[in-house]
Amino acid sequence: DLILPMFFADGLTEPREITSMPGVYQHTGDSLLRAVHEALDAGVRCVDLFGVPVDADKDADGSQAWNPEGVLNRALAAVREEFGDDLLVMADTCLDEFTDHGHCGVVTTDRHGVAVVDNDATLPLYQQMAVAQARAGAHIVSPSGMMDGQVAAIRAALDEEGFQDVAIMAYSAKYASAFFGPFREAVGSSLQGDRRTYQQDPANLRESLLEVELDIAEGADFVMVKPALPYLDVLTRVAEMSPVPVAAYQVSGEYAMIQAAGRNGWVDTEAVMMESLISIKRAGANQILTYFATEAARKLNNG
Ligand code: PBG
C-alpha cells in the first residue's frame, strides 16, 4: 500500500539531500539501488522514479524523456535489472523535469500572443515517453501532467508497441497546489509561473470527479488524488465512486511540514507521520505515495 517516490539525478558524484525534504535525496546510480534495497527490505513493494537531468540536457520539448539514454530511462532500466519482478517499478510520465521552460507540456503562443501549454500537441510526446519507459522496464507508467486525453493516448501507444501489461496510474485529481513547493527543488525545476491552466482549482470538487470518470473511461488502472491530507474530502468522494483502486499522494510540502515541525520539537515526527498516513487510508486510499514509505513500512512491520 506504500509507494516510495525517488529522485535520480545526473551530474552528481554523491547523493544530495534536498534541503526542504530532510531524508530525501537526489540519488546517484549506486545510492538509488541502495535506497531501493532498503525500501524493499522494509516491505515497500513499489517505487516511483523521477529523473533530474542536467540543465544542458533540457530543451523545449523535453526530448530526453524518450531518449533511452535519458536520465529517467537509465534509472528505470537499472532498477528493473537489479530487482526484476521483486518490486514494481513505476515511472513518472511527465515532461516538466525535461523541458527548459519547466511546463508539463509543449508551450505555444495563442492568438493574443500569450504563452500557453498546448494540450493536444503534448499527447504524442507523452506517448513516446511512456513507450520508452515501458521499454526501459517500467511496470507502471504514471501520467502526472494533467493533459486531457493523456490516459487514452498512452494506453493506445503502449498497446500498439506490445506493452498491454504495463499499467497506468493516472494522476486524475491533481490540484494546482502550493504544497508542491519543495518538489521544485527536488527536481531542479525550471518553471516560471504556475500550472493553473492544466491542474485543478483547489476550490473545485465537482470537476475532479469528472476528471476521474474520464480517466477511468480512457483505461486508467488506478486513479490518484493529489495532494492528500488537504484534499481528504476529494479522496473520499473519489473512493466512493471509483471502480478501480484509488491512490493518494502525500506530497513534498506535506512531508516538509511534518519534518520541519518535528525538527523544532513542536510535534512528534513519527506519531504525526503515522497519523497522517492512517488518515489518508481512512479517507479511502488504497495506495499512498509518500516520502515516508520506507520508515512507515519498517515501523508497521516491527509491530
Ligand atoms: C509534475 C509533478 C509534480 C509533482 C509530482 N509530479 C509537481 C507539479 O505538478 O508541479 C509533485 C510531487 C510533490 O510535491 O511531492 N510532473
Topology:
Elements: E1 2-9, E2 16-17, E3 25-27, H1 29-42, E4 46-52, H2 71-83, E5 88-93, E6 106-109, E7 115-118, H3 119-136, E8 140-143, H4 150-160, E9 167-174, H5 181-186, H6 206-218, E10 222-226, H7 232-241, E11 246-250, H8 252-263, H9 269-283, E12 287-290, H10 293-301
Q: Care to describe what's here?
A:
- Helix 7 (232-241) links the parallel strand 10 (222-226) and strand 11 (246-250).
- Helix 1 (29-42) packs across helix 2, helix 1 (29-42) runs parallel beside helix 10 (293-301) and helix 2 (71-83) runs parallel beside helix 3.
- This protein starts with a strand and ends with a helix.
- The mean pLDDT is 96.
- By secondary structure, it is α/β, with parallel strands linked by helices.
- The chain contains ten helices and twelve strands.
- The strands form two sheets. The protein has an eight-stranded parallel β-barrel, surrounded by nine helices. It has a two-stranded antiparallel ribbon with strand order 6-7.
